[in-house]
Amino acid sequence: VINFEDKLLVHKNSNPIIIGKNSDEFIISSDNNIIQELCDEFVVLDDDDFCLIDSELSFSYLNKVLKKTLKKNVNIKEIKTTTFMESEILEQKNLKNIFFDENLKNIYELVNKIKNCNKKIILSAAGTSFHACLFFHYKLLEYGILSQVILASEFENYLDIIDDDFLIIVFSQSGETGDLIRPLKILSQNCVEIVSVLNNRNSSIEYLSKSCVFLNCGEEISVASTKAFGFQIFIIEVISDLLKYNSLKKISKRINFISDNFEVEVDKIFKKVDEIIFNYDIDKVFFIGRNSLFPIALEGALKLKEVSYMHSEGFAGGELKHGSLALVDTKTLVFCLDNNSDILSNAIEIKTRGGIIIGLGTIQSTEFDDFIKTDDLIFMIIALQIIGLKYSLSLGLSPDKPRNLAKSVTVR
Ligand code: G6P
């Protein structure tokens, strides 16, 4: 933005710019949530658009006219707690919001695309959203579809082999992750079909996509993503049920179960996590899961390291024996997701080397030193998020603003 003969000249180059107007001011911002609250009219700039604003508060575009109605983000009633991270964890009660507005139609469209797809499917995202992609990959396998999951920061290496024979599905809470935007710009110029699963409306990735599904979980403020992950996983569960049963019956029951039992279940998890974190003298934490719980284990580890700076790693249970088992000693705490015989055999390998095993899931096991009961995957995810939150707070840290990290990363 530059001052130019009493006028403001605004130019957009890669990072998002939205200009809002109300009766007595213009607001120029990269964050459409602010503009939504304060303005009645908006314009979303595309790359290389110029806009001139004069002191009479009139504005004109120097190249094309771009008036777009700003689509509203969903407002979720805020729950007052001392940290945004905690209130956002609790806001996962509102899962039915994924059906808000026209989103069910968007979800059906994506399901039909997948059903009738004779294209190769690529899934891509960064950070927490990448773990959602990996979870989607396992769910598509259950339906007999093999997809390729690519880290957003590695996506550019694949561009030469991607043509219109591919369907690209990306996940992003913010819709502004630079590592995704760069390859998507090239792919959209080459007319490759892009479908995105986003939370923030009017984002750069929305405008690069042919169609979108929205999380509708409300604005996420805490740097470490929590509710967006719960909503991403749940949207994938909806898609997967529609692919398998062509019905929303099962998933609606689950939504009711989660929302009816939410306070009681989450309260129990909070108490149990409080007990556990002061019980053991540890210096590293592992999370293990198999199949679709592998990405959930990765996310548990990411959450903990992001907000507590503790050394934590997530593993596919079966992979431990190929190297990482060497790290296990009596100061290793391992969260074991589920208790099927395969993951239990991995837990036993850790236990015999002195590690402490905490089970998460529906059923206790004699191999567990402690157990957090979680009767739905969403409660398991919430338990992992609470583990991160509680460790962070117990170390006197601020979970909302972890050192060295940013909510939306637009740089390479
Ligand atoms: C940053 C944030 C992470 C987030 C990742 C991807 O690294 O700190 O919490 O998971 O970006 O963000 P996105 O908005 O694309 O989901």
Low-confidence stretches: none
Distance between the termini: 22 Å
Share of residues in strands: 15-25%
**Order of strands in the sheet with most strands:** 9-8-10-11-12
Write down how many β-strands occur, each being a DSSP E stretch of 2 or more residues: 17
**Mean of residue pLDDT values:** 91
Radius of gyration from the alpha-carbon trace, in angstroms: 23 Å
**What overall form do the CA principal axes indicate?**
globular
Query: How many strands, which pairing sense, and closed or not: the largest β-sheet?
Result: 5 strands, parallel
**Helix/strand-derived class?**
alpha/beta
Which ligands occur here?
Answer: 6-O-phosphono-alpha-D-glucopyranose
State the order of secondary-structure elements, H for helix, E for strand: EEEEHEEEHHEHEEHEHEHHEHEEHEEH
Helix percentage: 25-40%
Written description of the protein model:
With 412 residues, this protein is α/β, with parallel strands linked by helices. 37% of the residues lie in helices and 20% in strands. The protein has 11 helices and 17 strands. It has helices spanning 32-38, 84-90, 103-115, 127-142, 178-189, 204-208, 227-245, 249-277, 293-308, 341-351, 377-394; strands at 2-4, 7-11, 18-21, 26-29, 41-44, 50-53, 59-61, 120-125, 147-151, 166-172, 193-198, 211-214, 284-289, 312-316, 332-337, 356-361, 370-373. The strands form 4 sheets. The protein has a 5-stranded parallel β-sheet with strand order 9-8-10-11-12, sandwiched between helices. Strands 14-13-15-16-17 form a 5-stranded parallel β-sheet, with helices on both faces. α8 (249-277) runs parallel beside α11 (377-394) and α9 (293-308) packs parallel to α11 (377-394). The radius of gyration is 23 Å and the shape is globular. The two termini are 22 Å apart. The mean pLDDT is 91. 6-O-phosphono-alpha-D-glucopyranose (G6P) is lined by residues 126-129, 172-174, 177, 223-225, 405-409.
